[in-house]
Each structure stands twice: as structure tokens, then as C-alpha cells.
Amino acid sequence: MKEIALHLLDIVQNSVTAGAGHVNITFDLGADGMLSMTVEDDGRGMSKEFVQSVQSPFVTTRSTRKVGLGIPLLMQNAMLSGGDVHIDSEQGKGTTITARFGTRSIDCLPLGDLASTMASIVMGSPDKPEFSLTCRSPKGEMSFSTEEIRPVLEGVSLAEPGVVQWIKESLEEEITPILGGIMQ
Amino acid sequence: MKSLAELEAIRKATLSRINVRKEEKGETTRVVVGMATCGIAAGARPVMLAFVDEIQKRQLQHVTVSQTGCVGMCRLEPMVDVYVPGQEKVTYVHVKPEMVPRIVAEHVVNGRPVEEYTIGAADNN
Asked: For residue A74, what is the nearest residue in chain B, using CA coordinates?
């Protein structure tokens, strides 16, 4: 992956597949340059044994073939920058995955186009789950949620091209002042 | 910030398009983009958003863009399947955002697949 935002697009799919009703995404950039990306869902969760094994590329829930690279690739890139990945999960309750990146490391990926990623995520699962995004840094904070805009749309799908473009453009405007320094 | 009022306007515009879609009862063309780990890593996200842009720009009523997982040919990603009603499915491989306007114009709108971008052409090389 070339961007942290692409890792997000990839691992959010795990929450969707787990049948989550809500997926809360948080980016928190500290004054020390550490960026933590948290994806919290209320999907079906994983057993302790599965959480242990999910770091292996040879473990996956899909039945078509026996490799799953999403989490191993995320771990590799987090660790290269001096960060780490932590997975907290309980069966029947949900999963929280936190990846930390040292954004001052020469080996750290750029955050990338987070607005495009959110637009793609919402477009891929327009009805369920509800997604929220919060971005925080010493420069400020923004938040967005599909629950906020659903009433305005009155039944028009979030996957309609015009709506997808609105999400992308409005998030771009809001995210840039807060996380602009690490986007490229 | 882009306002919710703007979103409301988009809702109204979209709603009238949806009504046209229902009245005309035309069959829908589907554009399906591979968005598993392999597709994303190969650059599927800008490709998918390029289709959304192009469809919005041309105000196409009977076209939907959706996502799918990995179909096992990761080396050919980003892959896009186009289903035009009454025609066979066409699979495009190694798709780049620059290729999207041509696929939409020639295939989605005019029903003539862009042969040189298809999986068949890729296999002959």
C-alpha cells in the first residue's frame, strides 16, 4: 500500500464483513508526531485464538483461498515507521484495531487521500453499517458521520454519484487543515 | 465547509433523476470494481471514483458503480467488470483512471467494448 488511507479502506472491509452496525474511525495525531488510526466496530468479534493468529498471512475467514494480507501488510508498515498494531476483540461485542505510525520516520507512509477513502467506504456499503470519522491534531478536530447526513437525504442512497462526490469534497475541506501536514 | 444545504440540493437533483430512471424502466448497466487488498494496493480507489465522476458528469441515469472482492487474478488488478444488459460481461484489466472516460464513452454509453483494455487483449501480449 502507498498510503495509510488505503490500509484503512482495506481493513474497514473486515468490520463490514463482521456484520457491524456501527464503525467508528478515529485519526489522532499527537504533538510528538505519532498518528494513531483506530477502527472500532460492533461486529461479531473474534475469539482470543483467532486474534492471535490473524497476524499471519496464512489465516483468513474467506473460503475461496487460504491467504489474507490485509492485517499483515498494515502491521508491516506500522512497524517500519516505529509504530505498532493492537487488536482488541470480544466475540459478540466487536473489534477495535489500533495502528500507530511514527509520522516523523523516513519510512512512514503518507496519510494519503483520506477523503477519497471515506467516499469509497460509504459507497461500498451505503445502507449498513453507519460510519463515523473523527480527526484530531494539535491544529483542531473534525467529525463526520453517515447518521448525520442520512436524514437530509431522505431515502436517497449514499452510493448515488452526486452524494459520493459531496462526501469526498466536504471531507477534503475539513480534513486538510487538521492533518494536512502528513497527507503527502 | 460544504454545507448540508448543498447536500439537500444534491438530494433533490438525484431524486428527479431516480424518478426518470423508474419511469423509463431502462435496464441498468453495472460497473463493478475489484476492491480487495490486491485491488486497493494496485490503485482501484481512484479508478472507482473516476467512474463515479464520469457518470455524474454525463448525468447517466441507468448506470451503477459497485465494489467486489478478489477474484483470484491479483496480477491483473485493478480489474473492472462492465455488464451491459443483453451483452456478455466484459472484464477490463490494469485499469487506470485515464482509461475511464473512454470506457464510459465507448462501452457504457455506446455499447462497444474497448478491446485493447480487455482481459482478452492482455492475454495475447
From this structure: B37
